[in-house]
Design goal:
With 466 residues, the protein is of the alpha/beta class. The protein is 49% helix and 8% strand. Helix 1 packs across helix 20, helix 14 crosses helix 16 and helix 18 crosses helix 19. It is globular and about 70 Å long. The strands form three sheets. Strands 4-5-6-9-10 form a five-stranded parallel β-sheet, with helices on one face. It has a three-stranded parallel β-sheet with strand order 1-2-3. The two termini are 45 Å apart. The chain has 20 helices and ten strands.
Length: 466
């Protein structure tokens, strides 16, 4: 019987172990997509206890606690930090097969030196030991990033953001990693949502202009792209519940925009027409700037109305959608590509049924000038686990060129989630090591070294042009 989470955790063959320890383990981290708060990076935040740094904002853990029957007061409510920690500790032994069991113990080991398995029996000692580490002046954001060997962080930022924290970070010698904004115009895409007109007004204020027409709006969006570019932006990101495609003329687009701007209700057909045009516009502007476009597809957000009204978004009430995406995505990408202005693109799906769709879609739009210009993104959210990562890696290997894959990202609000990169790297080396052990790829260490190091770090560095 293997020991739980020893040094060879997830590495099932000798070759896998060699690939991990020789080539993967010490690679820097290029975290091109996350939700870290740039203010906390600039201010070098120190945390009061493990509950704040570990459970605060982590909807993965919140969902597990709710599924275990924990009262909401001990999840997001008024319970003390100790009570919340204890509630998670009491939940942990029951998470057999859940990636949280691995992630949580990796984080406890790597950041707090805790080797015990977390449970109600060990909760008090783990809480004490972790808080002793957190209480040290050395446990701060800057040192977490440095000790995690993070070289790049791509935050997620609304176009109306003034990016003042990014500007200050650029002058902060304590931040060794590059911290770059990511352009996330979802509030400008979702024309059907309440508050669209208010957001457009705010966008105009950020540009020093008044937006009255759709042409004004597009000019303002370009202006904000220019501002992001000055702050080092190399990437944009779109979260799309479905993939739209409906063509429309300028007059119709102007009418739809005007209706939404004044608070009118748009139809589904109008919504699709507007979204199609705006996404094509954005994608072609990204291509002109040399940016990467990320598209995160097929999620149902805020499914529980009662809890949304109580807690707001991003609190653990989202799930997988099953929209058909192949035909509209092909048309959307083709519309950008007709003018040779399809940007480098990373396609993610929350629904595993779409992995083969996206991998084959990527092959339609590859071209010289970029290795795997269109990528199948890493296992995302509910697919960010052992089976999901293996499936994504094998899908991309079957249908693309896995060797050029840009690798893992945290997609997290936590500064100690970098243990997930280790988790990914162990899975990567185990998959490739298994292929070598089974005679499916030669034991050629020159190429294996290049492939492993590329997927762990170098490919992303080259792909994003840094």
């Amino acid at each position: 019987m293997k020991a739980f989470m020893d040094e060879n955790f997830l590495l099932q063959t000798k070759t896998a172990q060699q690939l991990f320890f020789d080539y993967a383990k010490e690679q820097p981290i290029f975290d091109y997509h996350c939700h870290l708060n740039p203010a906390e990076i600039q201010q070098n935040k120190q945390f009061k206890n493990i509950t704040e740094v570990w459970l605060g904002g982590d909807h993965y853990k919140w969902r597990a606690m709710r599924s275990h029957g924990v009262e909401e007061r001990a999840v997001t409510g008024e319970a003390s930090d100790w009570e919340k920690f204890y509630a998670y500790a009491e939940t942990m032994p029951y998470l057999i097969g859940n990636p949280l069991y691995h992630w949580s113990h990796l984080e406890l080991q790597r950041y707090f030196g805790v080797q015990e398995c977390l449970s109600k029996e060990t909760a008090k000692q783990v809480y004490k030991q972790a808080n002793e580490v957190i209480g040290s002046p050395d446990f701060n954001v800057h040192n977490i990033l440095k000790n995690s060997n993070v070289r790049m962080i791509g935050t997620t930022d609304d176009p109306t953001d003034d990016l003042k924290w990014h500007e200050q970070i650029r002058e902060n010698a304590g931040v060794e990693a590059k911290v770059l904004p990511t352009f996330r115009p979802d509030n400008g895409v979702e024309i059907q949502k309440a508050g669209f007109g208010e957001w457009v007004r705010k966008l105009g204020e950020s540009c020093g202009t008044e937006i009255k027409t759709y042409a004004d709006f597009l000019a303002a969006v370009k202006s904000r792209m220019d501002h992001f570019g000055k702050m080092g932006c190399r990437c944009a990101d779109h979260g799309l519940c479905y993939v739209p495609y409906r063509e429309a003329g300028e007059a119709e687009l102007e009418r739809i925009f005007s209706k939404a701007l004044t608070g009118g209700a748009v139809t589904r057909e109008e919504e699709e027409a507007y979204k199609t045009h705006f996404l094509v516009f954005c994608g072609q502007e990204y291509a002109r700037r040399g940016w990467v476009m990320q598209m995160h597809l097929n999620v149902i957000r805020c499914a529980n109305t009662r809890m949304f009204e109580k807690l707001g978004p991003d609190t653990g009430f989202d799930s997988i959608d099953d929209n058909e995406i192949a035909k509209p995505l092909a048309k959307l990408m083709d519309a950008m590509d007709k003018d040779d202005l399809l940007p480098k693109t990373i396609l993610y799906t929350l629904n595993p049924k779409d992995q083969y769709v996206l991998a084959t879609m990527a092959g339609n739009f590859q071209q010289s000038g970029a290795k795997s210009k269109v990528q199948l993104g890493s296992g995302w959210w509910f697919c960010d686990q052992l089976d999901g990562m293996e499936y994504q890696l094998k899908t991309w290997a079957n249908l693309g060129v896995l060797s050029h894959f840009v690798g893992m990202l945290t997609d997290s609000r936590s500064f100690i989630s970098y243990a997930r990169h280790e988790y990914f790297r162990r899975i990567l080396c185990n998959v490739i090591g298994g292929w070598v052990e089974n005679g499916l790829y030669p034991n050629d260490r020159q190429y294996l070294k290049e492939i492993i190091e590329g997927i762990c770090y170098q490919n992303a560095k080259d792909y994003f042009g840094l």
